[in-house]
Amino acid sequence: MQIAYSLGNLVFGGSNNPSDKNCLIYRHTFTLDLYSRQVAASSHQAIPCLVSSVSWRNDYHPVKR
Questions:
Q1: Which of 13, 21, 57, 65 could bond 48 through an S-S bridge, CB–CB 3.0 to 4.6 Å?
Q2: Residue 39: which domain range?
Q3: Contact 62, 11 (CB under 8 A)
Q4: Is pTM beyond 0.85 here?
């Protein structure tokens, strides 16, 4: 079972230089069977990111690590 909290606010303006710039994007994909209208397959992926593209301030430009 996967639990994901706080899926919003990836680029939040509450801090102009957070000490920890690590974050992640959680992607969950569902494939539906159109005949049965049931989930036929499911997969998830955690994509490591940083909330800023520079280390010395928050430029509100997330980048993949």
A1: 65
A2: 22-64
A3: yes
A4: no
DSSP state of 18: -
**Residue 63 forms beta bridges with which residues?**
50
Q: Is residue 51 classed exposed, middle or buried when 0-12, 13-18 and 19+ CB atoms within 10 A define those classes?
A: buried
Q: Is residue 45 part of a domain?
A: yes
Domains of the chain: total: 1
**Residue corresponding to tokens 């997969």:** 43
Q: Is residue 14 part of a domain?
A: no
Sign of CA dihedral 29, 33, 34, 38: negative
